[in-house]
C-alpha cells in the first residue's frame, strides 16, 4: 500500500499520476471470521480498524449491502461538534472530537478535518437561556464552547444578518471553535484503507439477509447471497436498516427509521467561513472546500426506507437559510438527497451488547452520527473485543429503555445535528 | 410530498395538511401497573419499523382535525389505503385488493 507523503505525491505528480495503486482490495468472503461487522459506513469500518489496531483481532470482515460509505456516511452534512448537554453525551462526543484531531495522521489519509468553528444562533430569550445552560454544562465537562454577542457572531461569520427588525433576530450565539467539518467520503475510505492494510476483509455488494443463531441461542454467523459466513461475534452497524437486520436475530430495538435530507448549491468562491446552525428557524449550513454550500434539512415525519423525502422540507429549509443569510437568496441549488436515519426515543445511540450472546449493536445515531464516527467506532470495537462496554459507552445500553435511565438529548438533537 | 386520503373528509389532500402520529394499533394497556418493566418498555418504545407494509396513524390537522389510520409501504411510500380510527387492522387480502 502506498504511504502518502509529500515525496509520494511529488513522485506520482512527475510520473503523470499514472502509478497510483488501488488503496484496498475488494475481498471475497472467507468461510469463517472472528468478527463480522455488518455495514461498511464510517462507524463499521472504523470499528474494524480499531479491532485490528488496538485489540489485535485481524480476522475481521466488514460486510456491506451496497458500496462502501454509500449510506449515511456519504449523505450527511459533515458537521462535527461535541457541545452536548449531558455528561454521558459530552464524554462520548468529545472522545470522538479528540480522535478527529489526530485522524488524518493516524490513518495516513487526509480526511480534510477543518476546525472552522460551529456557531449556534439564539433567536429568542428561551434560546439564549437554553444555550447558556448548554454552554455552562459544556464548560463543566471540559468541552469548549463560548458565548458571542450578535456583533461578535457577525464578525466571525460576515454573511450573517443581525438586523434588529429581522423576523427572527439574532440575539446571540454559542461558538465551539474546535468543531468544524470533515470530508465524509475520505473518512470511510481512510478507515477502509487502514483496516484492509491490517488484514480486514471488506466485502461490498453483499447484503446480510439473516443473522443465524445456534441451538443455545448464540450467534453462529450471517447468511448472505454469497453463502453462509461463520463468525464468533457479529457487530451490527447498519444505521437505518438496523431494525431489519436485528429482527432476523430475534432482537427488537427501540428504533424508527426516517428519511433525512440535505442539499448543496452550485459551487462558489469562499464566502462562508464556519458552520452555522439555527434550531429556531431550522437551518444549518457550511461551505465545502469545493465551494458548494452544504445545507441540512429536517427529517420527514413518517417512517420510511425510501432514501428520499418531501420537497416541502427543502423549501422550508431554504427559506430559513434565506432568512438568516439574505446574501444567498439568489443562490441556485444543485442537488438534494436523502438518507435513512435510525432514531431512538431519547435521541441518543445504543452501543453495546444485546440479549443474544456474541451479537453487538451500534445504532440509533439518528440525525447526528457522522460527528461521532471515530469515537463510536473506537468504543464499539472495545465492546466487541472485550465483551464488555468501554466506560464511555457503558451508559448507552439497550437496557436503559427498561430501567428508564435515558440520556434524553432530544433537545439537542431535535433539529440540527 | 405525499398525497393522503382523509377517510372522514373523503378527499385526497397534500401531506402538509396532515400530522403523522406514529404506529397504529398500539393499545394502551388496560392495567398499566400490572405490567413488568420489560412489558412497559415494549409498549412505550418498541416499534415494528418494517421495511414494507406499515400501519400508521395520521391526523388531518388542517382539515377535520381527526385521527385516522393508514397502510403505507415504507419503501415506495405509496399508501394502500386509509381507514377510520377504531376499525380493525385490515387483512392482507384487503390490503392487496386496495393496492390493485
UniProtKB/TrEMBL annotation, chain A:
Fetch the SUPFAM superfamilies from UniProt.
FAD-linked reductases, C-terminal domain, FAD/NAD(P)-binding domain
Give the source's domain of life in one word: Bacteria
Q: What's the cofactor?
A: FAD; FMN
Identify the main location: cytoplasm
Picking any one GO biological process from the record gives: tetrahydrofolate metabolic process
Q: Which residues does the UniProt record annotate as the domain Rhodanese?
A: 35-79
GO molecular function of the protein, one example? nucleotide binding
Has keyword Cytoplasm? Answer: yes
Annotated localization: Cytoplasm
Q: Which Gene3D superfamilies does its entry note?
A: D-Amino Acid Oxidase, subunit A, domain 2 (3.30.9.10), FAD/NAD(P)-binding domain (3.50.50.60)
Q: Which UniProt keywords apply?
A: Cytoplasm, FAD, Flavoprotein, FMN, Nucleotide-binding, Oxidoreductase
Identify the EC number(s). Answer: 1.5.3.24
One GO cellular component term noted in the UniProt record for this chain: cytoplasm
Q: Which PROSITE patterns match?
A: RHODANESE_3
Q: What class of enzyme is it?
A: oxidoreductase
Reactions catalysed according to its record: sarcosine + O2 + H2O = formaldehyde + glycine + H2O2; sarcosine + (6S)-5,6,7,8-tetrahydrofolate + O2 = (6R)-5,10-methylene-5,6,7,8-tetrahydrofolate + glycine + H2O2
Instruction: Report what the protein is called.
Output: Sarcosine oxidase subunit beta
UniProtKB/TrEMBL annotation, chain B:
Name listed for the protein in its UniProt record: Sarcosine oxidase subunit delta family protein
Task: Tell me which stretches of the chain form a coiled coil.
Answer: none
Would you kindly state one Gene Ontology biological process term found in this protein's UniProt entry? Answer: tetrahydrofolate metabolic process
Gene source species: Borborobacter arsenicus
The residues that cross the membrane are: none
Q: Which InterPro entries match?
A: SoxD, SoxD_sf
Tell me one GO molecular function of this protein.
Answer: sarcosine oxidase activity
- Highest taxon of the lineage: Bacteria
Amino acid at each position: 500500500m502506498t504511504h502518502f507523503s509529500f515525496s509520494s505525491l511529488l513522485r506520482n505528480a512527475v510520473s503523470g499520476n499514472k502509478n497510483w495503486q488501488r488503496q484496498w482490495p475488494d475481498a471475497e468472503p472467507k468461510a469463517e471470521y472472528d468478527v463480522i461487522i455488518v455495514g461498511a459506513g464510517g462507524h463499521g469500518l472504523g470499528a474494524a480498524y480499531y479491532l485490528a489496531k488496538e485489540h489485535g483481532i485481524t480476522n475481521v470482515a466488514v460486510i456491506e449491502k451496497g458500496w462502501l460509505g454509500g449510506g449515511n456516511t456519504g449523505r450527511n452534512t459533515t458537521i462535527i461538534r461535541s457541545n452536548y448537554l449531558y455528561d454521558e453525551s459530552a464524554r462520548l462526543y468529545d472522545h470522538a472530537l479528540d480522535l478527529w484531531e489526530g485522524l488524518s495522521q493516524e490513518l495516513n489519509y487526509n480526511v480534510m478535518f477543518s476546525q472552522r468553528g460551529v456557531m449556534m444562533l439564539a433567536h429568542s430569550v428561551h434560546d439564549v437561556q437554553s444555550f447558556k445552560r448548554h454552554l455552562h454544562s459544556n464548560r463543566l465537562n471540559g468541552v469548549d464552547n463560548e458565548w458571542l454577542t450578535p456583533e461578535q457572531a457577525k464578525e466571525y461569520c460576515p454573511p450573517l444578518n443581525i438586523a434588529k427588525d429581522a423576523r427572527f433576530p439574532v440575539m446571540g450565539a454559542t461558538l465551539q471553535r474546535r468543531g468544524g467539518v470533515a470530508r465524509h467520503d475520505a473518512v470511510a475510505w481512510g478507515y477502509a484503507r487502514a483496516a484492509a492494510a491490517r488484514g480486514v476483509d471488506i466485502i461490498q455488494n453483499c447484503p446480510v439477509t439473516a443473522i443465524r443463531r445456534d441451538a443455545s441461542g448464540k450467534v453462529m454467523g450471517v447468511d448472505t447471497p454469497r453463502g453462509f459466513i461463520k463468525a464468533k461475534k457479529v457487530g451490527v452497524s447498519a444505521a437505518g436498516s438496523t431494525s431489519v437486520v436485528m429482527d432476523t436475530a430475534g432482537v427488537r430495538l427501540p428504533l424508527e427509521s426516517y428519511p433525512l435530507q440535505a442539499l448543496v448549491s452550485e459551487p462558489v468562491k469562499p464566502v462562508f467561513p464556519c458552520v452555522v446552525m439555527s434550531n429556531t428557524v431550522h437551518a444549518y449550513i457550511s461551505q465545502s472546500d469545493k465551494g458548494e454550500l452544504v445545507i441540512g434539512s429536517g427529517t420527514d415525519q413518517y417512517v420510511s426506507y425510501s432514501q428520499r423525502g418531501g420537497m416541502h422540507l427543502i423549501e422550508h429549509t431554504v427559506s430559513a437559510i434565506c432568512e438568516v443569510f439574505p446574501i444567498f437568496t439568489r443562490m441556485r441549488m444543485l442537488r438534494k438527497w436523502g438518507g435513512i436515519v435510525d432514531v431512538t426515543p431519547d435521541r441518543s445511540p445504543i452501543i453495546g451488547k444485546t440479549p443474544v450472546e456474541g451479537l453487538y449493536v451500534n445504532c440509533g445515531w439518528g440525525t447526528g452520527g457522522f460527528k461521532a464516527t471515530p469515537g463510536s467506532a473506537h468504543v464499539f470495537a472495545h465492546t466487541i473485543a472485550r465483551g464488555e462496554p468501554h466506560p464511555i459507552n457503558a451508559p448507552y445500553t439497550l437496557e436503559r429503555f427498561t430501567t428508564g435511565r435515558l440520556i434524553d438529548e432530544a433537545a439537542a438533537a431535535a433539529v440540527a445535528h | 410530498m405525499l398525497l393522503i386520503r382523509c377517510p372522514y373528509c373523503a378527499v385526497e389532500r397534500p401531506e402538509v395538511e396532515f400530522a403523522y402520529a406514529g404506529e397504529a394499533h398500539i393499545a394502551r394497556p388496560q392495567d398499566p401497573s400490572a405490567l413488568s418493566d420489560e412489558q412497559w418498555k415494549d409498549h412505550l418504545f418498541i416499534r415494528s419499523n418494517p421495511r414494507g407494509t406499515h400501519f400508521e396513524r395520521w391526523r388531518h390537522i388542517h382539515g377535520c382535525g381527526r385521527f385516522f389510520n393508514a397502510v403505507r409501504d415504507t419503501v415506495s411510500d405509496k399508501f394502500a389505503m386509509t381507514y377510520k380510527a377504531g376499525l380493525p387492522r385490515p387483512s392482507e387480502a384487503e390490503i392487496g385488493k386496495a393496492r390493485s
